[in-house]
Amino acid sequence: DAKTTQPTSMDCAEGRAANLPCNHSTISGNEYVYWYRQIHSQGPQYIIHGLKNNETNEMASLIITEDRKSSTLILPHATLRDTAVYYCIVRVSITQGGSEKLVFGKGTKLTVNP
Amino acid sequence: GAGVSQSPSNKVTEKGKDVELRCDPISGHTALYWYRQSLGQGLEFLIYFQGNSAPDKSGLPSDRFSAERTGGSVSTLTIQRTQQEDSAVYLCASSRQGASYGYTFGSGTRLTVV
Prior knowledge:
The complex is a heterodimer.
Chain A: E1 9-13, E2 18-23, E3 31-38, E4 45-50, E5 55-56, E6 61-64, E7 70-75, E8 84-92, E9 108-113
Chain B: E1 5-7, E2 10-13, E3 19-24, E4 31-37, E5 44-50, E6 65-69, E7 75-79, E8 88-95, E9 104-105, E10 109-113
Parallel strand pairs in B: 2-10
Antiparallel strand pairs in B: 1-3, 3-7, 4-5, 4-8, 6-7, 8-9, 8-10
């Protein structure tokens, strides 16, 4: 089962900031928070990830709460091309002899409106 | 190549036939994953390869499904005696080892069983 919960859908006006929340209340200390998005009929695209500190790259910003139980992905100036399903995932470090897999939940369907 | 390459991009097969799907990961990526996505559904984990370790096959839905990874690079997912419920997009991803690295997904193979 996915270790994250996200709203099923959100809307945002073009040019405005899109703030996508994610709850991961059972996250462990060595688990990273990853965000991916999937535009219709394409493979998932990596956006950003973080462990404890807030992160920013050319696509988005990631704000992680101090207790790490939730995070928010921010698209600062949403465009129509940002319409996609956004997935929030926790990823654990590999331990010796262990295995890992990203478990995708249902994500948030973001619709950017003109 | 620059990205994860999957072939074929589309495959239509008759029920009961065997199919092979190929994934060519990014050079230097030791981890390789197979997922599938049925129409309108989320991503379902199938199998994970990490270096020379035994693969994690926990997501394979039945013994008709198998996968191998030769020389730690190219992977082939084989579905024997295909059924209509096998129709889906099969996605491959690769990654460097470690939770601080993101996955890069291929564009997928759309399998249709008629």
